[in-house]
């Protein structure tokens, strides 16, 4: 009931009719284009944009240069496969030399012991 009372109390608003003839807008080409000077803030924005672009280009170039340097350093730190092979061979040869030295020392000890035994036999049998 309340909604019926509220809606019936409002009167419709008057609508003004549109004019019969609306003047046509002239085409954009009809306006004479005169060289316009850009407002100062637009010029400042263009200069700022150019500066920003140059700065971005410089930063990008510096970053590329640094990346190349880092890659070069990393490549320099990687061991050369040939050097690794040679180092491995050197280590193996060093181990072989140590084994031969130990075997030579053991042989010398056995040989000296044999010579002593032979000398003792010669001294006891002959004299």
Describe this structure in words.
The chain is built from 3 helices and no strands. The longest helix has 46 residues. The protein starts with a helix and ends with a helix. The N terminus is likely disordered. It is mainly α and 127 residues long.
The percent of residues in helical segments reads over 70%
Structural class: mainly alpha
Q: Number of DSSP helices?
A: 3
Straight-line distance between termini: 154 Å
Cα-atom radius of gyration: 52 Å
The beta-strand count equals 0
Spell the H/E element sequence.
Answer: HHH
Shape: rod-shaped
Low-confidence stretches: 1-7
What is the secondary structure topology, with strand pairs?
Layout: H1 2-9, H2 40-77, H3 81-126
């Amino acid at each position: 009931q309340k909604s019926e009372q509220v809606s019936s109390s409002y009167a419709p608003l008057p609508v003004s009719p549109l004019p019969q003839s609306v003047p046509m807008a002239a085409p954009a080409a009809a306006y004479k284009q005169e060289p316009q000077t850009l407002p100062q803030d637009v010029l400042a924005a263009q200069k700022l944009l150019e500066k920003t672009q140059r700065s971005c280009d410089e930063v990008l170039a510096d970053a590329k240069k640094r990346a190349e340097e880092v890659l070069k350093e990393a490549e320099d730190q990687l061991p050369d496969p040939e050097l690794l092979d040679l180092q491995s061979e050197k280590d193996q040869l060093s181990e072989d030399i140590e084994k031969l030295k130990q075997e030579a020392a053991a042989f010398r000890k056995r040989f000296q012991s044999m010579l002593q035994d032979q000398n003792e036999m010669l001294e006891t049998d002959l004299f």
